[in-house]
Design brief:
The protein has 370 residues and is an alpha/beta fold. The chain has a domain at 1-175. The chain is 16% helix and 45% strand. The chain has a 10-stranded mixed beta sheet with strand order 2-1-5-7-9-11-13-15-17-19, with helices on one face. The two termini are 37 Å apart. 48% of the residues are buried.
Length: 370
């Protein structure tokens, strides 16, 4: 099997990344690790998977320059503009899954910020060619020596006609960090994506923005679990545009505040006949501190689009709490069970290779171990 190594990652770095989904490279089709402002490591084990530093991909394939800032305006805001300033020497990865490939093992992509008070500006481009199928695992982390810093990432993803991608992303930044992330995805005809996002660790300020364009017959489904302990602010802004006939999407977001602030703005736009979409936004407050502000919005541009949403915010159900305590659990244990159930994901949509780690991360968050 082919292997490309650009440097190596230390055992300590591997242990750190294991907490956000890293697996031994013998169990992965490809691996990329970005550390601070460099592509530290690339490993390949499948001829159908191509991973390059973005700067190298721009030199190798002239068409990559047409993808760069193809889905996001380089003047979108001050943070995107800061990344755009480095276009002559961009830092980030380029991932390509070749046409018709059925990639057997997941591709894993990770980001580490190791410089205290460090600054990261990354631009990543992913292309899943026509008819290809792949699972992807991504994660972000910092060592215990990093307490604060600033990370900005731009991700532009193309799923060509009939492509299929199932992904999970786990983020574990430092409690004093500021993060701005921008994700743009275009699904071409009959493409399918399923994304799971896990944001549970404390962070000072995290603003994430997502935009998806869904063509005829394509499906874009996602699920997110969001946790905000005291001192954490999370702002999420998403929009899915169902642009083609028969395009569909389902987006489920579960939010828990234990004193932090969560703002969730989710918009679903039906632009074509037969477009179907659903937004589910559910929040749980564990105490009187903190705040959840959730705004699901539907916009129908076609008379034949079918869009719906469900939203709720509440405290822990006292009847459920009493029932569990009557069965012999302490109050704290009963609360943990309820929170664990609320934060549950559809495990079947998560790559099997990382299901155990995902469940461990959720358990750690609700117990306060993160």
């Amino acid at each position: 099997m082919p292997t490309t190594l650009r440097d190596d990652i230390s055992p300590d770095e591997k242990r750190l990344l294991a907490e956000v989904g890293y697996g031994e490279e013998s169990e992965r089709s490809g691996t990329c690790v970005l550390v601070d402002q460099e592509v530290r490591h690339i490993g390949l084990a499948d001829n159908a998977v191509e991973i390059l530093p973005l700067a190298e991909a721009l030199g190798r394939y002239d068409w990559v320059q047409d993808l760069m800032f193809g889905l996001i305006d380089p003047e979108e805001d001050e943070h995107v503009a800061a990344v755009a300033e480095s276009r002559a020497a961009p830092v980030g990865h380029f991932v390509r899954i070749h046409e018709g490939a059925r990639v057997r093992l997941p591709v894993q992509l990770f980001t580490l910020l190791e410089a205290p008070q460090g600054r990261q500006y990354h631009h990543n481009i992913t292309v899943i060619e026509r008819g290809a199928e792949v699972e992807m695992v991504s994660g972000s982390s910092v060592p215990g020596s990093v307490h604060a810093g600033h990370h900005v990432s731009l991700s532009e993803t193309w799923l060509r006609e009939g492509a299929v991608c199932r992904s999970v992303a786990i983020e574990h930044w430092a409690a004093g960090m500021e993060v701005h992330s921008y994700a743009r995805t275009r699904l071409e005809r009959n493409a399918h994506s399923t994304d799971s996002v896990i944001q549970l660790a404390p962070i000072r300020h995290h603003c994430s923005q997502s935009r998806k364009l869904v063509a005829e017959g394509a499906t874009a489904n996602d699920q997110s679990i969001i946790y905000a302990p005291a001192g954490t602010t999370r702002i999420m802004d998403s929009e899915t545009r169902l642009q083609g006939a028969g395009a569909s999407s389902e987006s489920i977001t579960r939010m828990v505040t234990a004193g932090g602030v969560i703002t969730n703005r989710a918009t679903l736009v039906g632009e074509a006949a037969g477009a179907r979409g659903f937004l589910g936004c559910n929040g749980l407050k564990l105490n009187d501190d903190g705040e959840i502000f959730s705004v699901p919005a539907l916009r129908a541009l076609s008379a034949w689009a079918q869009l719906s949403h469900e939203a709720s915010i509440g405290m822990i159900d006292e009847e459920k709490l009493s029932y569990l305590m009557a069965s012999g659990l302490s109050e704290d244990a009963a609360r943990d069970v309820i929170i664990q159930g609320f934060l549950s994901l559809d495990e079947q949509t998560i790559p099997e290779a990382v299901r155990d780690e995902v469940m461990r991360t959720i358990a750690a968050a609700k117990s306060g171990a993160l």
